[in-house]
Write a structure and sequence with these properties.
Length: 205
């Protein structure tokens, strides 16, 4: 009888521990989001590498992200301080996850989001105050960034991983399975410039 009572006690104790701690074990984490700005644009970096099961949704007024790193789930929903031009946005997932966002109206934002958040931090290596003296940092370096076509990316049902060394997405690219399978069969025409030079045509000065 004492053994049965002890087992019942352990079972109830484990259930109570699970009830208290399970919400914390399944809770998602917030990645560090770094940002810098110019009067006409914002440079945003999600400080994560080797992201799996990545999902990104960009709207004119917000950015949503989710992905897994080392078994941990990272996600956030970020409403922007002011609208951006979604069609003019660019991104890269070659190392970190980086975005170039063009503001709908020029001006200096007091913060990236509608409100302050501890996981949103200033990207000091790219930041430039409006009253900085001396040499200015100029426009953001967009080398290696490609155009975004979110409707194709999210509608395909495929997850983009940052460790997939695919070419940057360009508007109108066919990323469906049929399109990807047919891509290797297409040979480059004679005299065509190398791929690296072709990518430069899509970059913004």
């Amino acid at each position: 009888v004492e053994v049965i009572e002890y087992i019942d006690f352990l079972t109830e104790s484990l259930q109570e521990v699970r009830r208290i701690f399970c919400p914390f074990l399944t809770m998602s984490l917030k990645p560090d989001v770094l940002w810098a700005q110019r009067p006409d644009s914002v440079y945003l970096t999600i400080d994560l590498k080797e992201v799996q099961d990545m999902k990104v949704t960009l709207e004119n007024d917000s950015l949503s992200f989710s992905g897994r790193v080392g078994g941990s789930l990272y996600e956030f929903d970020l409403p922007f301080h002011a609208p951006i031009k979604k069609a003019a946005s660019k991104w890269s997932t070659k190392r970190l996850i980086e975005f170039y966002l063009q503001k709908e109206e020029e001006g200096i934002w007091p913060r990236l989001g509608k409100s302050k958040a501890p996981w949103i931090k200033v990207d000091w290596k790219r930041w430039q105050d409006s009253d900085d003296e001396g040499e200015t940092k100029g426009a953001f370096d967009l080398d290696g960034m490609g155009d975004m076509n979110f409707s194709d990316m999210m509608g395909s049902g495929d997850d983009l991983d940052s460790d997939d060394e695919e070419e940057d997405l360009v508007e109108g690219a066919d990323i469906s399975p049929a399109g990807m399978a047919a891509a290797p069969a297409a040979a480059a025409p004679a005299g065509a410039p190398p791929a690296a030079e072709e990518k430069e045509l899509d970059q913004i000065d």
